[in-house]
Design a protein that fits this description.
The chain is an alpha+beta fold. 26% of the residues are buried. It contains 12 helices and 10 strands. The termini are far apart. Strand 4 (87-88) and strand 5 form a beta hairpin. Residues 1-7 have low confidence and may be disordered.
């Protein structure tokens, strides 16, 4: 325990020295939050989030975007006392500072927080248009990510087989493949082209911890900021709401996330890409002894999701 504290003191001392020499910022305290993210308090009691980045083009894109968007509800980079927008460490990492916002993360288990998130995301999308930056970062279209997740999911087939869940495995794979194929009938390329022409942007990671409720609700952490079809954010948000509304279609539709593209949005939301993500994430973090419980939970969730899948598919067919 003492060695851990000493190691933390050494890291903080090095960070303090680095910040002073490269950014002329005097650190009174530095507190670890998560990997590459710290809370920084200066000698003048100013509080910042200090973050290390590894991709310079992503940081530049965020800077250029922040300079153009007029929405006050987002956490933007600050400038170091010596005027630098970011500073470089000896390994090529970039360090930014963002004013610290006191508040709590939204919790999608609460209806009011879901409303808050959906309203702020819509507000953000209204402002995140007609913004153009040099060499925007290109990312995969969302259903290509799902295909890669599906390939990773298929590699876990032996786990399902070993514990007697073969039927569950094949049902998830076949359902995912079928619904991804169904997306091909929609004009995704046109929406992408329109977004690039009109300078439309998405946040890219609408997890509840990226909505921070303080004196107002803010969007934070723009590492996945992308110039693309804004429906992608709405698809992800809808999928993130589902477990907290017991996969109830009527409740999901009440948040009006899709705008003029309800059918396309719903056709994408029903693809269980979020379920694949959660399975792979939990599997990486778990021990072998946890696997029976993980499989039992996945089976329970999948069973509850069937009613939503059936209702949503019928709605799409009748539209």
């Amino acid at each position: 325990m003492n060695n851990d504290y000493k190691r933390g003191d050494v890291i903080n001392d090095r960070l303090s020295s680095f910040l002073l020499s490269s950014g002329q910022i005097h650190a009174r305290s530095i507190r670890f939050i998560k990997q590459h993210v710290y809370k920084l308090k200066t000698e003048h009691d100013q509080n910042y989030i200090l973050k290390r980045h590894t991709h310079e083009q992503q940081v530049k894109q965020q800077r250029d975007f922040f300079q153009q968007i007029k929405l006050p509800h987002i956490a933007k980079f600050a400038v170091y006392p010596n005027g630098k927008e970011w500073i470089y460490d000896t390994e090529g990492g970039l360090w930014t500072i963002t004013p610290f916002i006191k508040g709590r993360s939204l919790n999608y288990a609460h209806h009011n927080d879901r409303v808050e998130a959906s309203q702020l995301l819509s507000h953000f999308h209204n402002y995140a248009r007609h913004i153009h930056v040099p060499q925007p970062v290109k990312r995969q279209i969302f259903f290509m990510k799902w295909l890669h997740r599906l390939l990773s999911f298929k590699k876990t087939a032996h786990i399902f087989s070993e514990y007697g869940y073969n039927t569950l495995f094949h049902d998830i794979v076949q359902t995912t493949e079928r619904h991804i194929q169904d997306l091909a009938i929609y004009p995704w390329e046109k929406l992408l082209s329109d977004a690039e022409r009109n300078g439309l942007w998405i946040h890219g990671d609408v997890a509840s911890h990226n909505f921070l409720k303080g004196d107002r609700t803010y969007l934070i952490d723009f590492d996945l900021l992308t110039q693309t079809c804004q429906l992608y954010d709405a698809i992800q948000l809808g999928q993130r709401f589902l477990p907290y509304i017991d996969w109830d279609l009527e409740t999901l539709l009440s948040y009006d996330l899709a705008g003029n593209h309800k059918e396309m949005w719903l056709a994408a939301v029903i693809v269980p890409g979020d379920l694949l993500r959660e399975w792979l994430h939990k599997l990486r973090k778990s021990d072998v002894s946890d696997i029976p419980e993980l499989l039992s939970e996945l089976d329970r969730v999948w069973t509850k999701r069937q009613k939503f899948l059936k209702e949503a598919t019928n709605m799409i067919k009748s539209s």
